Structure formats: C-alpha cells, structure tokens
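Review form for a predicted model. The reviewer records the input and the model, then writes brief findings.
Reviewer: anonymous (R2)
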Amino acid sequence: MTLDIKQIVDLFKEDVEREAENRNAAEADTRFAKLGEQWPEQAKREREMEGRPCLTLNKMPTFIRQVVNDSRINSPQIKVKPVDDDADPDTAEVLSGLIRNIEYTSQADVAYDTALDAAVTGGMGFWRVATEYCDEQSFAQDIFIHRITNPLSVVFDSHSESLDGSDWRHASLIDHLTGDELKRRYKAKKDVGSFDGEVGQDDDEDLIRIAEFWHIDEVPEKLLMLSDGSVLTEEEYLKPHPDIGVPLKDILADLGITVARDRKSSKRVVKQYICGSEIIETNDWAGKWIPIVPVFGDEVFCNGKRYLKSLIRDAKDSQQNFNYWRSGATEAVALGPKTPFIGPVGAFDTDSAKWATANIKNHPYIQFDGPASPQRQPFVGVPAGMLQEALNASDDMKSIIGIYDASLGARSNETSGRAIMARQREGDVSTFHFIDNLAKSIAHTGRILVDLIPKIYDTERVIRVIGADGESKNVPLKQQTEHNGAQRIFDLGVGKYDVAVDTGPSFTTQREEAANQMIELIRGYPNAAPIIGDLLAKNLNWPDADEISKRLKAMLPPQIQQLDGAEGLPPEAMQKIQAMQQQMQQMGQQMQQGMGEFQKVVKELEAVKADKALEARKLDIEAYSKETDRIKVQAEIGEAIANQIAQAQPIYQDQQNTPLPAGM
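Model under review:
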C-alpha cells in the first residue's frame, strides 16, 4: 500500500504528540548537562542584576563520560552464527568479516558513541544504515553506518515497545535543506514547500523542511510446502522460468514434485518517502527493517506509556543545590572585605566620599570626626553549614547516579585494592543497563546487515573482510575460490544466519592486556622468554613489532616451529601430519632398540678386542723371554771365548818373543 502525504503527516503528528514529553525532557537534559543551563532563568536574572555570583560548577559531563568511555573500552562486537543446515561456519565468518569492514569504512564506532552519549545525556540516541553506489560509473553498492547527530530529528513509532526498534512500523528523519541542495539531492523543484510539522530546529525561511519517512507494509502472500520438503511462495511457484519461459509449477510436476500443504503468510515491504509539502520521491528498501536504530536510556513504563530517562535526570536537583551553596559560599567570601565600618553619628562627615568607597578602593588615608575612630567589623568566615550542604549535594549526585569516587579515579575511603575494585564494579553495575541497551541495538544492526548483505552483494565481486585481529583479506563472491585448502563458492544468500554481540574489551585492549600478562609470566618464569618472545613482541604497540616478532619466531626450536606451521591446516593435512608423527615416533623407538643392540655388539667387540690384545701381549712376552735367553747364552759363550783368549794371550806373547830356529 502506497501512502499519500496526508497519511504521512497524520502518522508523524501522532508520534510527535505521544512522544512530546520524552522529547522535551531529552532537550532539557542535554541543555542542562552539556550547555550548563542549570539555573532557573528568573533566579539567574535577579542574581546578575544584584551583582551576586551565579556559579555553574557542572559535574554532569564527568559522569556521562565515565559511562560513554567505558563503552569505548569494552566495544561490542558483532558475530554471525549459522542457524540452519544450509548455513556453514566459513560463510558465517565471511559475513562477520564483511560487517567488520562495513563498520571500519563507515567509522561506525563514531555512530555508536554518538548515540550512546545522546542516550546517557538525554535518554535516546540514533544511527542509521544506508546504501551507496561504489562510484559514479558502477551499479555495485556498498553498505554504510552513519551517525545521527541530532537525536530530536528522529520521530519514531510511538506505539512500539521494543528496546532496539525492531518492531517499528514507521519512523521519520527530519532535515533542513536549501532549495538548491534539495534540487541537487532529490532532483526536486524549488517551489516545494516545507513538511507540515517542525522538529528539532527553529523555522528558517531560507531552509525547506524535509521528512524522510519510512513505512513498513505487510503484503499478504501464500506459502507452499512441496512434497520434497522445500518451501516457496505461490508467486515463485507460478512464475515462469527466465530461460525457458515455462512455469516452475510445470517443471516440478514433470519431476513428480507437488504441493503438500499451504498457509497464509505475509512479507514485509519497506518504503522510503521523501516529503516536503508533497511527496518528492518514493523508494523501495531492500531490507525488511527500517534502517534507523535507536539507543534508549533508562525505560520506565507507567499506565501504558513509556518514559525514557537519562543518566543525570534524577541528579539535576542535586547539581542545582550544589551550584547554589557554592555560589553562596563564594558570595560570603567575596563580601568579607565589604564588612561595614561602625562609628558615632557624624564621624563620617569628613572625607565622606572616601568612607563611601572604603570597601572597594584602597585610600592612603581617611579622616574622621570625633574622639573615637570608626571600627570595621571582623570577618567571621564562611558559614560551615554552606560548605557542608555543598558536600552533601556532591555526595547526593554520586549516590543517585551510582558512580562513586573510586569509579571516577578519585581517592575515597577505600584503602585496599580489593575494596577499590569492588566499588568500581558497583559503579559499572549501576550504569550497565546503558551499555547493555547499546549492545542490543548493535545486535539489531547486525540483523539488519545480515538481511541486507545478500541483496546488495548479489553479484560476482571481490569483497574485503576484516578478522577479529584486524587483519584484512579479499574474498571472491559467487565464484570458485580456494579456502583452507579446498575449493568452494561463497554465496551469502544461501542459508540462514543470526547474530550475537560480545561485550568486552576491544582487540587492541586485549592485546595490551595479553602483553602485560606475558611480561609478568616472564618475570616469574624467565625460561619462558625464548619460547613466547615472538608472541610478546607481536602484542606490543611498537613500530616494526611484526618484523621483530618474525625474527624472534625464526629463532624458535624446530619442534615449536613445526607446531606453529601446523596451525590452521585442513583436517586432511592434520591427519597426514599426525600419521607421519606416529610413524616418526615408531621409527624413533626402533632406532632406540637398534642403538641398544648396537651398543651391546660394541661391548662384545671391545671385550674380544681386549682378549686378543692380551693374547698378543702374552705372545710378545714369551718371544722376549726367548730372545733374552738367547742373548744370555750368546753372552755366556762370548764370555767363555774371552776367558780362553785371556788364557792364551801370555802363551802367544811368549811365542812372539822366542827367536826362530836357524833355517826357519
């Protein structure tokens, strides 16, 4: 059903009227907390006219930042999970990575923080999901998440009860454009007037008020279950095949597939109306939810009406009380030098002009009349009751909001670390519903994206996905690719998926905490340094930390490098590696047995060698003994011959001295 401008204006005005109290309170809270408009206008005007101090010591931003910045540290993360048999974990991981890339390119964290800040400050904040063409020469589109800086520009379905806007039937987003901008953006005529109804901005005759109105219509349809268990709509069942022109009904009948049962159903059709004084253009939205996501503060239901409260709404009186007593104390101290002089009548006639300005000017001398000099009354100090009331008002703010000194980083009466952490935890618990509401809204954003992605990324293209560790890679869609060692095709439109949100520290914070804990581990167990040094360097926030990690990893023992190399391999490869490891283990056992046998043989050979050496030594000794005996015999023979020579020597000499006979 297509709406006309009157129907749109009527729905808009009804929502504005029913939510007027929440909208007015949100604006008042924002002005109170962010703009410091904390004094009643009449009281402020009277004090300024009398020259009295009118201090605004605004403590509200400190409490607001405590909640918002805590969310920045513990940023919710969208994770996609498979639901039915057609879905698989790998495609779910691709969807999760694509959503991270959408958040990264859109700076979605800015949108989330802006909406939460508005919810904490005024009770409600918003962001939106949009699609845009990749470039001027392409039909391919990308998805973006944009922040909405003015929460009062959103007028949502006042009959909804959901916390994340999933049950909205309609919503409006108000903008103010010049005639030229309106013509450029929507190709509209300049004579289009403003939309009937003003929200969030004063009238400006140079601007045209435009309403971006979203509406969901339920279109009836018939759902069919076929005899093979498949489910499709009657429209799909009767629609001719695009290639052969034959209805799918006839094709299935030839295959023996018939309709087993049917039921009435409906499908959601989302339309966008761009409205001024008339409808400028109408667009169909590919998704089934309105792409505007709220973040609400504290909800209170009373008599069928929902009230949205900010963090600081109940603490506004304490803040005003604090301002009053601090202003009173300041006034008392400032008036100290203005304490009047007291003297007898006529004492101030001389130099009366100087006496009239004695409290505001320093005169070198002032004359007086009479025997007694005028006396100034002494300053009694700031009344203790003023200071005590100011302290009471400050404590009241902390107790009402639920954030105490320990949570704000200030010194309190806690002395032990456990007591400080307990008080900090109490502060986190008392404001956790704001963080939890943000997580629920981000989860609904994830569902919007999971529903929208298959309809936008429906052609063959290469997308970038980002892992939980921040590493990015390219994944081809609807075309064969290699993934984990196997060939497969990623079709994001096949299967059913759901989302979950993890609320915890961001990956950067987790990495820093991991690095600190690794350092503590190394301090307690220094031998772990060579084993985890590469992981420690990888988690440190250094320039070239990855390069340092690679170099340290190259120095790891081979067995650890083998374990690192086996991570992330396909199951078939892991089974082969395990089988090889078992074979190597068996071979090692066999080698150990062989070494035992070898050592035994070596010992036997050593024993034989020793025996042979001993025998050879015995033979050498026997030969030496025989040679010694031979030498001894020869020596005895030589000695006997020498004795014979010695005995024959005299006889020989005698013979030499005897003359020879004549004739010889």
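Findings: DSSP finds 20 helices and 19 strands in the chain.
Further findings: The radius of gyration is 49 Å.
Recommendation: see findings above.
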